[in-house]
């Protein structure tokens, strides 16, 4: 896949981002601890790319997406978005400014059924954001919504129907149309195909790729399905317990998998060829609680490479080069793993 990130035009730069949720108990609701959902994320999203964000359920990937949209307020850190009039920190915007920012940043939710109001027609669901952002006449709104429905391979007249009259794949297309109705630059796809049948997944993924090229979009594609993320992504970031542990170009990640957690994830991808036997890596133990994450490397309790340093020192996400291509890994033994992986080619 062509890598748009090579142009190196940042659209969103995330620095030291943390999103913690307080856990309260007792009559007075005293804070006892925090759920550390997103814990020190540093990441740059480039214009025109699709960044895949993968990891197990509960790793914080959806929380990261909703924090970017300010649906959750960050505890710490910066999110610098490149607006036409210059870069600004999303967290510092007031309510009016954030409304304007949401014209640039939209989301496609996981469940197309619950993300559409069952008592609204499709026209009503898509009309409100157009009305809010300046499309005053009903005739103009109907034309725009009809054009959007056709852009996602649906008929114009469907705008007068209700969500229950559509299949899951059609509802997800409507969700995509709603995200695009105010011409955003960045679209966060939160498990956008995970609730769909495999054949419908392929249709929606191809639609997303087509719309990206036609409208010059940038995607953050959140998923737990590594087969899907390989197909659609330019770069892939792997999250574990609120942190990014590996980041590189999509094909680079699959050919030179460095972090032990990523290696275990990739080994679990089903293979249709019965003559090709995969070396499945089974992780021991459960994912630690984000309320009480382990010291040092969060993955050390499940890692076969674990040594004393892993239990006491947090590995930083460092940049390495493999055959001239950059690769970021947060592991104390990244250099050893790189040598071993390259020798095994």
Question: How would you explain this protein's 3D organization?
Answer:
The chain is of the alpha/beta class and 345 residues long. 31% of the residues lie in helices and 26% in strands. The strands form 2 sheets. Strands 6-7-8-3-9-10-12-11 form an 8-stranded mixed β-sheet, sandwiched between helices. Strands 2-1-4-5 form a 4-stranded antiparallel β-sheet. Helix 3 crosses helix 4, helix 4 crosses helix 5 and helix 5 packs parallel to helix 6. The longest helix has 18 residues. It is globular. The N terminus is likely disordered.
Decide which structural class fits the backbone. Answer: alpha/beta
Give the end-to-end Cα distance, rounded to a whole number of Å. 21 Å
Helix content: 25-40%
Number of strands: 12
**Biggest β-sheet, characterized?**
8 strands, mixed
Low-confidence blocks of residues: 1-6
What are the main properties of this structure?
alpha/beta, 26% strand, 31% helix, 345 residues
Structure at a glance:
The chain is an alpha/beta fold and 345 residues long. It has helices spanning 61-68, 95-101, 122-132, 138-151, 168-180, 198-215, 226-232, 250-255, 260-267, 308-312, 334-343, and strands at residues 10-25, 30-46, 50-54, 76-83, 86-89, 105-108, 186-190, 218-223, 235-240, 243-249, 318-322, 325-329.
């Amino acid at each position: 896949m062509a890598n748009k990130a090579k142009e190196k035009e940042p659209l969103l730069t995330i620095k030291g981002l943390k999103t913690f949720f307080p856990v309260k108990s007792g009559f007075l609701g005293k804070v006892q601890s925090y759920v550390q959902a997103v814990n020190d994320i540093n990441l740059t999203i480039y214009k025109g790319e699709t960044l895949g964000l993968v990891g197990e359920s509960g790793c914080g990937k959806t929380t990261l997406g909703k924090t970017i949209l300010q649906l959750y307020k960050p505890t710490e850190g910066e999110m610098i978005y490149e607006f036409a009039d210059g870069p600004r920190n999303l967290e510092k915007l007031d309510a009016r400014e954030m409304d304007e920012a949401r014209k640039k940043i939209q989301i496609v939710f996981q469940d197309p059924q619950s993300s559409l109001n069952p008592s609204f027609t499709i026209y009503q669901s898509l009309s409100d954001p157009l009305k809010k952002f300046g499309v005053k006449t009903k005739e103009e709104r109907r034309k725009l919504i009809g054009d959007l429905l056709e852009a996602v391979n649906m008929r114009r007249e469907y705008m007068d129907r209700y969500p229950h009259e559509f299949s899951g794949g059609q509802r997800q297309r409507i969700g995509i149309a709603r995200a695009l109705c105010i011409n955003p630059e960045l679209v966060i796809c939160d498990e956008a195909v995970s609730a769909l049948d495999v054949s419908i997944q392929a249709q929606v993924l191809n639609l997303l790729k087509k719309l990206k090229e036609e409208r010059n979009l940038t995607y953050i594609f959140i998923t737990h399905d590594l087969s899907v993320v390989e197909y659609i992504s330019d770069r892939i970031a792997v999250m574990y317990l609120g942190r990014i542990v590996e980041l590189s170009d999509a094909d680079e990640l699959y050919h030179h998998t460095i972090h032990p957690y990523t290696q275990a994830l990739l080994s679990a991808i089903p293979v249709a060829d019965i003559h090709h036997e995969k070396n499945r890596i089974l992780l021991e133990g459960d994912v630690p609680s984000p309320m009480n994450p382990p010291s040092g490397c969060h993955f050390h309790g499940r890692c076969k490479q674990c040594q004393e340093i892993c239990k006491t020192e947090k590995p930083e996400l460092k940049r390495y080069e493999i055959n001239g291509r950059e690769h970021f890994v947060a592991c104390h033994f990244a250099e050893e793993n790189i040598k071993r992986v390259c020798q095994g080619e």
